[in-house]
Amino acid sequence: MKWAILGAGNIANEFARSFRSEKSELYAVASRSIEKAKSFAEKHEIPVSYGSYEEMLADKAVTAVYIATPHSHHYEQIKMCLEAGKHVFCEKVMVTSKAQLDEVIALADSKGLYLAEAMTIFHVPLYPKLKKWIKENNPGKVKMIHAPFGAYKPTDSPMYFYKMDLAGGALFDIGTYALTFVLEFMSSQPTDILTMGNLHESGVDESSVILLRNKEQELATVELSFGTNLPHVGVVAFEKGYLQIQNYPRASKAVFTSLDGEETIIEVDNQTHAFTHEINHFTDMVLSKEENKTIAKTQQVLEIMDVVRKEWGLVYPFE
């Protein structure tokens, strides 16, 4: 299986640096600039470089494409890749609305191709281990979930963070982690969504609070900010104690504290980069023709995001 990277920015560099796979090869990179593509390929020892996405997609040797461009570009680029017969592993947030996601899922299904989001929580080993631990140890019903995520971004950053035309803002950039974390542990999709958000003068969302409740009466709070740092500590509170997951989403360790204060550590190997897990998980899914179990969760996250953005009145210029 041969991979190509579409885009040659910061996240693409992290993907290439982390590429370790016995079953697949990092074969090509494509950028709108051939000079940038060649420099990227030389840096990461990638055999083939292209100065246009169309040229790369015409290469029959390419099996799967990792899309590493700004959020605003994903929808059209996913369609391009699928139409060219390539499996697609797209950086989060995959697209900017559930309607867009439903469309590209239908396209992938019609062509017998895999489409998945490069969402760390879906692919690293801690979360399956936590679910197994919960099933075996029965800490009781989920009562509350807390998922703060703040990552300070200077307003003069040259990146997409505060740019409306690139679908910037905290919700799409870091809120996707917090909402995915919540849905990993909620028993069903939230039925009640309340939110307050502060929009930056550029138009994107800078800080927000999101409250969620489902039919099981499980409550969740999500706090997001580009204006300050917040601890990336996810908490899942059960009837018999609570789980604390440090440094989510890329966590390798969790601690369960019972009602009487007894602590249990649940951990996995932390020597492997999160991207390496993502690459190998997607590769295995494609090669073994496994059921794609993550795409439904991506749909659920975007369904919440649609409601939240409507409440804020946040509409991007390309919508």
Name some characteristics of this structure.
single chain, 319 residues, alpha/beta, Rossmann fold, Dihydrodipicolinate Reductase, domain 2, 2 domains, eight-stranded mixed beta sheet, six-stranded parallel beta sheet, 26% strand, oxidoreductase, Gfo/Idh/MocA_domain
Short description:
The chain is an alpha/beta fold and about 325 residues long. Helix content is about 35%, strand content about 25%. Strand 9 (about 205-215) and strand 10 form a beta hairpin.
Note the topology.
Elements: E1 2-6, H1 10-17, E2 25-30, H2 34-44, E3 48-50, H3 53-58, E4 64-67, H4 71-83, E5 87-91, H5 98-111, E6 115-118, H6 120-123, H7 126-137, E7 142-150, H8 170-185, E8 192-199, E9 205-213, E10 219-225, E11 233-238, E12 241-246, E13 253-258, E14 263-267, H9 274-288, H10 295-312
Parallel strand pairs: 1-2, 1-4, 2-3, 4-5, 5-6, 7-10
Antiparallel strand pairs: 7-11, 8-9, 9-10, 11-12, 12-13, 13-14
Helix pairs in contact: 4-5, 5-10, 8-10
What does this structure look like?
There is one protein chain. By secondary structure, the protein is α/β, with parallel strands linked by helices. The protein has ten helices and 14 strands. It has helices at 10-17, 34-44, 53-58, 71-83, 98-111, 120-123, 126-137, 170-185, 274-288, 295-312, and strands at 2-6, 25-30, 48-50, 64-67, 87-91, 115-118, 142-150, 192-199, 205-213, 219-225, 233-238, 241-246, 253-258, 263-267. Strands 8-9-10-7-11-12-13-14 form an eight-stranded mixed sheet. β11 (233-238) and β12 (241-246) form a beta hairpin. The two termini are 35 Å apart. Residues 129-241 form the GFO/IDH/MocA-like oxidoreductase domain.
